Amino acid sequence: MVRGSPHPPYGTVSVIKILAATALLCAIPSSLFGFVPVNRWTSTATDGLTGNNGDPVTLTWGLTPDGTSIIGETDSSNLVSFLDGIYGTAPGLISNRPWFSLVEMSFNRWSELSGITFQYEPEDDRAAQGVGAPGGLAVRPDIRIGGVSIDGNSGTLAYANFPNGGDIVFDTSDGFYNNTTSNSLRIRNVLMHEVGHSIGLGHIESNNANFLLEPSISTTFDGPQYDDIRGIQHLYGDALEKTNNGAGNGTSALATDLGSLTAGQTRSIGTDTGSGTLVLPSETDFVSIANQSDIDFYSFQIDEPSVIDLTLTPVGATFNQVVQGGSEQTEFVTSQISNLSLTLIDSNGSVVLSSANANPAGIAETILGFELATPGEYFVRITGGDNAVQFYELDLRASAIAPVLLGDYNGDQVVDAADYTLWRDTLGQTGTNLAADGNGDNLIDAADYDIWKLNFGNVLETPSAAVVVANVPEPGTLLVALLGFLSLVWLGKKSGPPRAQEQACF
Ligand SMILES: [Zn+2]
Q: Domain 248-400 falls in which CATH fold?
């Protein structure tokens, strides 16, 4: 994500009206979230009864056949022929139409950003479109899209019902849609906006950022923007909540696998949430803790003993926002919405190895330098302390375990008199992580002197030190040379053994 530009003037501005929204929106306390969560789907054709906020859902969508009546409208739907007129037609199934992919990608964009799984439902029984005709598998979609002439050219472009209705009506007398530049951004942004209503989001307004759920359509961006994504993840969780057949990643057994880490490697998730509000259509990596009930588990593997660094950073932009028609814009610092906690868990999936929750909301939690002596699988658990959605980035880094040289109290990789001096100068001190506390009992005493004495003269053996030793075998080389010279007398050309011995030094 890159930072959003200042609020630009809209190109062609048209009001998108929504049905039955006003009464609901008046009851929404706008300062809680920023976005406006009207309500989520509680029953769908695929799932039956669905869960609570933050839980995933499967929704079907489809095109209402031309000639089907639309509740509240005089005319019957003519959307298919309207789109055929712009893009051309094709025989057979609706999905063969040249414009079908534009509709499909608009639903799929919301799907890849959230816990919603959208599925195309080709069947439609031509029941009147609108509230009172709920979705049914192989009967009709949860979300049906039709179109009629609403108010002629300009004005209203489309409208939609909130859950559990969700049906969408386009104004098929609007010339706005004849402009198909930028892969038909106009019709796609209108459709994605209406789908935002269909899945439960109300209108918002911002005086310093651009969002898809603002009441006037903009073509300065493509699809759901940062706050729109926050809204949908508040209602249905992030895209990982629909993994494991909808069971999500809330336990160690269902953890999202981040793969194997070797020394020097890193893994990151949630990397597309930057500090700005503009979201590019290519960005998909947004993860969040939806509420106090949400738990996200990740797993990783190490193939050798390693030191692991974990950093959990709450991320998000700062912007002004108000419910449509509200009088005062409120600043939302969306990196400080919920106080996140970070926990490192052992291979059995339950024993806590380390946890971090000291910092307030908005500040990263870290577990740094934690030594994992046993190769295997480990888990990271993330939770939130507040009942609102918080985006985050999780970064893992593995490094090799540094070798330990007992008695090397000043860390210069040799046990010598300087270490004794350090021991003597700090004798009697107590506390954690004392340099000359050789036995780790938080006290500098005679036992630490004994450790120094026992290891006096030792040098830390590192790969670089071994190379040095191998490069300076002067006495041995002289001896080899002498043996080689002598062997000319005794063994003719047979000078192999000394050369083999020299190679062994490396
Ligand atoms: Zn709208």
A: Jelly Rolls (2.60.120)
- The predicted pLDDT at position 2 comes to 27
Which helix (H) or strand (E) element contains residue 377? strand 376-384
User: How far is it, in rounded angstroms, from Cα 186 to Cα 192?
Assistant: 10
- 5 Cα: distance to centroid of ligand 1 (angstroms): 22
3-state helix, strand, coil in the chain (%, to 5): 25, 25, 50
pLDDT tens track for 278-308: 999 999 999 999 999 999 999 999 999 999 9
CA of 195 to the centre of ligand 1 (A): 9
**Which phi and psi (to 5°) does residue 131 adopt?**
-60, 135
Rounded distance from Cα 463 to ligand 1 centre (Å):
65
Q: Where are the domains of the chain?
A: 39-200, 248-400, 463-504
Same fold, 39-200 and 248-400: no
Rounded distance, CA 270 to CA 394, Å? 7
- Paired strand residues for 379: 299, 345
Task: Determine the distance separating the centroid of ligand 1 and the alpha carbon of 271, expressed in angstroms.
Answer: 29
The CA distance from 353 to 378, in Å, is 10
248 alpha carbon to ligand 1 midpoint, in Å?
Answer: 30
Domain 39-200: which CATH class? Answer: alpha beta
Give me the amino acid identity at 171.
D
CA of 410 to the centre of ligand 1 (A): 66
Q: What confidence score (pLDDT) does residue 326 get?
A: 84
Residues whose CB is less than 8 angstroms from the CB of residue 32 and which lie 6 or more positions away in sequence, other chains included: 388
Is the four-CA dihedral 349, 350, 353, 357 of positive or negative sign?
positive
Give me ligand 1 centre to Cα 159, in Å. 7
Q: Which two tokens stand for residue 201?
A: 């989001």
